[in-house]
Structures are given as structure tokens and as C-alpha cells.
Amino acid sequence: MTAQPGADNRPVVVLADDEPDVLGAVAPFLERSGLRVITAPDGKLALDEIRRHKPDVCVLDVLMPGADGREVLRTLRREENWVPVLLLTQVGEAVERAMALEEGADDYLNKPFDPHELVARIRAVLRRTRHDGPPLATAPVLVSTFGLRLDRTSRRVWLGDRELVITPKGVTLLEYLMVHRDELIERQRLLEVLWGFDDAVGTRAVDSRVAELRRVLGEDASNPRWIGTVQGRGYRFVAEVTGAENARP
């Protein structure tokens, strides 16, 4: 099922989900929010629509017949199609979320979700996505100012020529902030990324991990080079970030 005919300048979104209620409710909401929506009830049809319409962003359910959302994502990346992908995952499936990000998803959203939150995520992805090559979500290495480099495959971090000792959750936190540079990330969101909904931890645990990163980086919270605090809300990676192929300069 395709969007209404007629060329316009609205961003094009492919929305794929096998639940008719989701398509029936979410697609009109996205249209009312200023997006042009193309829907598909399964992964294979979603691939056809993506190849045909070259959308600005894709929203894919992880659990679909034919080809699930992660399979569609892997196919797109094999084809060197860097269209931003936001995956809809099941609440509490922390492993699914981690795998989605590792395979090149730009973001994810837990089901059930608030359509307003989906629109906010889509707009954030569109703002930070570059159209001249692979997005940060697929870059093997993330590079920032003052010699900060994160190798996403080996899970190792360097500051200049010195390798930093950071806990696994600290690396995951740094990676997520760098990929979502210049975007306000709420504490609750970071809690989901690091622990999922099943772990009995509070948002103060996120603050502790940020403090850990700042200690290792030698970061001054009052004058940050990399991680800025948004008072009462969360954190923002304030430095520039680019993607690279090699971990060392």
C-alpha cells in the first residue's frame, strides 16, 4: 500500500508492521505530522517499497512474516543502502535492542509506543543522518574531537595514543551518545539502552556511568569537551563525531 499520489517535499517514511491496527493507527498519525507514509505488512514487501521509493527513513517491526525487521536491515546494509532504519522491538528484549544497534539500526522504539514518541525519533534520525555515505550507526569506528576514538567491533576506546580502561556498560553508553551526537538523550532512555526494563536499577545508575566516563576522559562537567548535562533531563554529546574504518590514526 503506497501513499497518496502527487509529488511533495515531505520526508518519505516506509512503515512496515504485520499488525493491521498499528498500520491503521500510526500511518495516518505520521501523515498528519507532516510525513509521507508508505506502508507494508511484511518484510519482503517493505524491501520492495524501499527499493522502489528510496525513502528518507524506514520504521520496521522486528517480528514480521516473510522477513523480519532485522533481516530487512541486514539486506539493506549488504546492498550498501544507508537509509536510516528505526526498529520496533518488544519491551524488555534488551538483547534484541543491542543486536539491532550492532547491525546498523539508527535507533529503536519499544512496543507498545506513543505515536508522538515515534515522530520525535523519526525527526531526530532525519536531523542527524548524513546522505553522502554510511551513517554513524553503521560506522565501524567513531571519531570525535581531541583524539577520542571508539572501535565498535573490539569495544576499545582511545584518547590520542592512550587506550582507556572503560567498563562494558561505559563503552555502550559512550557509543550511544556518540552515534546520537547533539541530541538530548533522556536518563530513562539511557537506562533502557544500558539495562533494559527488566533490571531493577534507577536513573542514578546512568549518572554514575556518566561520571565514570568523565573521570576516565578527564572531562570537566562544568566545561565539557564531549558529554554535556541537560539539567533535570539527561545528556548530550556536544562534540563533532565522524565515522572511520580504522581504529587507530
Automatic annotation (TrEMBL):
SMART domains: REC (SM00448), Trans_reg_C (SM00862). The modification 4-aspartylphosphate is found at residue 61. Residues 139-239 bind DNA. The keyword Transcription regulation applies. Residues 12-126 form the Response regulatory domain. InterPro entries: CheY-like_superfamily (IPR011006), OmpR/PhoB-type_DNA-bd (IPR001867), Sig_transdc_resp-reg_receiver (IPR001789), WalR-like (IPR039420), WH-like_DNA-bd_sf (IPR036388). It comes from the Bacteria. Keywords: DNA-binding, Phosphoprotein, Transcription, Transcription regulation, Two-component regulatory system. Residues 139-239 form the OmpR/PhoB-type domain. This is Response regulator transcription factor.
